[in-house]
Write a structure and sequence with these properties.
Number of helices of chain B: 17
Shape of chain B: globular
Largest sheet of chain B: 8 strands, parallel, barrel
Number of domains of chain B: 2
CATH class of the largest domain in chain B: Alpha Beta
Helix content of chain A: 25-40%
CATH architecture of the largest domain in chain A: 3-Layer(bba) Sandwich
Largest interface: A-B, 30 and 25 residues
Oligomer: heterodimer
Structural class of chain B: alpha/beta
Strand content of chain A: 15-25%
Radius of gyration of chain B: 26 Å
Number of domains of chain A: 3
CATH architecture of the largest domain in chain B: Alpha-Beta Barrel
CATH class of the largest domain in chain A: Alpha Beta
Number of helices of chain A: 17
Shape of chain A: globular
Structural class of chain A: alpha/beta
CATH superfamily of the largest domain in chain A: FAD/NAD(P)-binding domain
């Protein structure tokens, strides 16, 4: 078992090695130092990328890390999980006829230095006497809490899980971000004076009204819920994709992977699940998707990565029934699909062809078809937008003093770690502004 | 195919490329290998007075990824016994009769010492002698090298001693560590030297180690100025070469000049030839990449000469010298403006920031809709490559305000993206010389200058 643990952990170890000092220097020197650089514009947190890269080139790694932290406290996570092809690197001026700067890996180089040397931001402001409760220790909550702490506010994060970090800890495959990186980042936020209380579930262990009494503001960064149901026969035999990823991170040794695995869905999480299965020894991994490669929601580079991993794709295929033998799955009965007119999502409507049943063998089936919105909004009677918590320009919900950030408000645009981090940062600034404009109720002796 | 052979002051060589007197020419074995690689000649590392060397003798100036943009050294002249050097020189010359073998020499400033060294060199069968009046470190403290080169009278006196003794061509090598390079060159002409060569290395300190706070390189905790050479000194060398080529006395004498100082590529070589060099010497590029670079030096030069229809090296020699001018003879009415090719532009905005911060504020950032855009003016919530790329404005020169300073042209990282375009200025050609001669007051009084500018339509930005 122990050796299986080692083997599984090794198979899922961080994919990209850190840049060597030499490689980092060569890459940093290649940066043109654009003015008002497009990479900075493309970064949702607008890190001054040319500046941090030039500081790597000048061997000012402390300054480089400071530059990143100034815009993004979770620079270590973002360096690893950001879809850089769609963001900074995708906008690099060198990409058009050559190769964009490896911004993500350079950022990781600076962030690895900060971690190794504990060169982290520190609070330089006097305490303001204001206190904020943040619900959820995922990227949005951590970013918001950290920024508020830097502004001198007292912040408490309430997290229902055992460990802080949210999706960084539980939902990003170790190939891209090992658990230790996510946990170390939460320690950095704690070192700013933020209290992180784990094992406390909002709505069960503590109510909003209690928090409203004790804190000057409440920030909801509660993320999203479970994977929706497929409403097919014997669905219980299907494994939830997020749980599959979670066990690959928290207990890789005990993660059982079938010889032949089907992953339902074609988003980034589905690719992650398929990758885990493949890396942990599945001989055949097939991703099953109702539409085609044109409509799939995973990033292009993720699709290409999956193909290189040897993952197979069955497009225009809709699961109809799990086929069990002695209560174990042996495959998936599917229907052929034809595409119709665009549906509400703007993509062609998948139309299963009657009588087109066919069988795909598999002894393990995983589904990764998005996440449900939480019922929380309804419980708190918050206004919603497409089922997500509705917020104004200042990230304030329909209840004054209650803010929301991250995936739980992402009614449009791509839900990603870096946008969650930016939400947290902008919300912190808005909350701070709000405080500045409202005199403190704390008595001054 | 172009004929690369040269006859330099009577020294024959199959191509114009010689190894300069330096570490690459320290021994017969090295020069054998260099000749096998195709070098046309070699100037043997200076022989003469006895010396001892130190460790950490080479420093270097790196910039970005470019290693050895320049090298600096405190190595002295050859530290091998004179007899061994002389024997090897004779062996090399016997083995390579078609190559130029020149011996660099430096001895005390005594006529007898110079006579002796000249005779011993001639006994080897060498093709020529180069007088090292340039070594800027160590030897100069002992009254040799640059201590001679910096005083034209000493140059002339010592060279006269040498010319009395020598029967083979003598090349006098100049130090650049002097205010006016023309004066020692004229001394060389006066003394009857057969040729000049330039430049020797430039005085320099490479830097200070920021951990130890010692000089770089550190020689047991100390350091000092050393001779600076390599690509970074090329423009200095070209200027000095052109100064000799345009000096009446030096140019009229017809004395040939061997050019050196940072030659690394055939393009560098061609430029030295165009400004009057009759042979070329190379050191730093060889110390960086080895003798093999001779192949492209010859090949590239030959292909370029074919393209330009130059048949021989002599045809190229000095071809651009007539273009060398003083400021007072430049046409003040010549007008050029920068133009950015939007197709080639990658929108790095380096031209914009350079112009806006440090030049004449005449580059605008223009949106696709044609409106002016301020830098960093995008919405903080805008992100992603599509937003960033699609809304990125295009730098555009306001030609009516452009003074044609050429800074943007120089900072642009894309070849041929910014072009300096000549535009009619609407003014007739006039030089500062002509102005000061014909309209003296314009050149002496600001008010009159202003009136003149208004009259002819010169706008200062």
């Amino acid at each position: 078992m122990e050796s299986a643990s080692r083997d599984n952990a090794k198979a899922l170890a961080e994919q990209l090695p850190p840049l060597t000092p030499n490689a980092a220097a060569i890459e940093a020197d290649r940066c043109l130092y654009c003015y008002d650089a497009p990479c900075t514009h493309a970064c949702p947190t607008h890190i001054d990328i040319p500046r941090f890269i030039k500081k790597i080139a000048s061997h000012n790694l402390r300054g480089s890390a400071d530059t990143i932290f100034a815009s993004n406290l979770l620079g270590g996570t973002c360096a690893r999980v950001c879809p850089v092809q769609e963001l900074c690197e995708g906008a690099c001026v060198l990409g058009a006829d050559h190769k964009p700067i490896a911004i993500g890996r350079l950022q990781r180089y600076a962030m690895d230095y900060a971690r190794a040397n504990q060169s982290y931001p520190t609070v330089k402001t006097a305490p303001t006497g204001r206190s904020i409760a943040v619900i959820g220790a995922g990227p949005a909550g951590l970013s918001c809490a950290g920024q508020l702490a830097l502004l001198g506010h007292a912040v408490t994060i309430l997290e229902k899980r055992d460990k802080p970090g949210g999706l960084s800890t539980y939902g990003i495959i170790a190939l891209r971000e090992p658990v230790e990186i996510a946990i170390e980042e939460t320690r950095m936020i704690e070192a700013l004076g933020v209290q992180i209380k784990t094992g406390i579930e909002f709505g069960k262990d503590v109510s909003l009204s209690a928090l409203q009494q004790d804190f000057d503001a409440v920030v909801l960064s509660v993320g999203l819920g479970q994977t929706p149901g497929l409403a097919i026969e014997d669905e219980e035999a299907i494994i939830d994709g997020l749980e599959f990823i979670e066990s690959s991170k928290t207990a890789p040794a005990s993660l059982h992977v079938g010889r032949s695995v089907i992953v339902i869905g074609a988003g980034n999480t589905a690719v992650d699940c398929a990758t885990i299965a493949r890396r942990l020894g599945a001989e055949r991994v097939t991703m099953v998707y109702r539409r085609t490669d044109r409509e799939m929601s995973c990033y292009r580079h993720e699709y290409e990565f999956a193909r290189k991993e040897g993952i197979e794709f069955r497009f225009l295929t809709q699961p109809a029934r799990v086929v069990l033998e002695s209560n174990r799955p042996v495959g998936l009965e599917c229907l052929r699909v034809e595409l119709g007119a665009p549906d509400a999502s703007g993509r062609p409507m998948p139309m299963p062809v009657e009588g087109s049943e066919f069988f795909l063998p598999a002894n393990q089936i995983v589904k990764a078809i998005g996440q449900n919105k939480l019922a929380l909004a309804a419980q708190l009677r918050l206004e919603t937008a497409k089922g997500f918590i509705a917020v104004d320009q200042n990230f304030q919900t329909s209840i004054a003093g209650v803010y929301a950030v991250g995936d739980c408000i992402r009614s449009s645009g791509a839900a990603s770690t870096v946008t969650a981090v930016e939400d947290g940062k902008l919300a912190a600034a808005a909350i701070h502004q709000q405080f500045v404009h409202t005199p403190t109720s704390v008595e001054v002796s | 195919m172009a004929d690369l052979r040269i006859n330099f002051a009577g020294i024959q060589s199959p191509n114009p490329f010689w190894l300069a007197s330096a570490p690459p020419t320290n021994s017969g074995a090295q020069i054998h290998r260099a000749f096998e690689a195709g070098w046309g000649g070699a100037v043997w590392k200076t022989i003469g007075a006895p010396v001892l060397n130190v460790s950490n003798r080479y420093g270097a100036w790196h910039y970005g990824r470019q290693r050895m943009l320049a090298i600096n050294n405190v190595e002295l002249i050859s530290d091998r016994p004179l007899e061994i050097n002389l024997r090897e020189i004779a062996e090399v010359k016997r083995a390579w009769p078609d190559r130029a073998v020149i011996v660099s020499a430096m001895v005390e400033a005594k006529s007898q010492a110079w006579r002796e060294i000249v005779e011993r060199i001639e006994d080897t069968g060498a093709d020529g002698i180069e007088l090292n009046y340039g070594c800027p470190h160590g030897m100069s403290e002992r009254g040799m090298g640059a201590a001679v080169g910096q005083v034209p009278e000493y140059c002339e006196r010592i060279t006269r001693w040498v010319m009395e003794a020598a029967t083979i061509p003598v090349i006098m090598k100049l130090t650049p560590n002097i205010t006016n390079i023309v004066l020692p060159a004229r001394a060389g002409v006066a003394s009857g030297a057969n040729a000049l060569s330039l430049i020797n290395t430039v005085n320099s300190i490479i830097g200070v180690d920021l951990d130890t706070l010692e000089l770089t390189p550190s020689i047991g905790g100390k350091g000092g100025h050393g001779g600076y050479a390599g690509p970074a000194v090329k423009p200095i060398a070209l200027n000095m070469l052109a100064a000799l080529g345009t000096d009446e006395i030096v140019s009229k004498s017809g004395i040939p000049i061997s050019g050196m100082g940072g030659i690394s590529t055939w393009q560098d070589a061609a430029q030295f030839l165009l400004l009057g060099a009759g042979s070329l010497q190379v050191c730093t590029a060889v110390m960086h990449y080895g003798f093999r670079i001779i192949e492209d030096l010859c090949d590239g030069l030959s292909n370029w000469m074919d393209e330009k229809d130059f048949k021989t090296i002599a045809d190229v020699c000095g071809h651009s010298l007539h273009r060398v001018s003083e400021f007072k003879d430049l046409d003040l009415s010549y007008r050029a403006v920068a133009r950015i090719d939007a197709q080639k532009c990658i929108k790095c905005n380096l031209c914009y920031v350079a112009c806006n911060d440090t030049a004449h504020q005449c580059i605008d950032l223009v949106s696709a809709q044609g409106t002016l855009v301020q830098p960093y003016s995008y919405d903080v919530r805008s992100n992603g490559k599509h937003d960033a790329v699609e809304t990125r404005p295009q730098p555009q020169v306001r030609e009516e305000d452009c003074v044609g300073c050429r800074l943007c042209y120089n900072v642009c990282p894309v070849d041929n993206c910014i072009e300096m375009v000549e535009l009619p200025s609407g003014r007739s050609e006039v030089t500062w010389s002509e102005l000061s001669e014909n309209q003296t007051e314009v050149t002496e009084d600001w008010e009159t200058m202003k009136a003149y500018r208004e009259k002819v339509g010169i706008h200062i930005h």
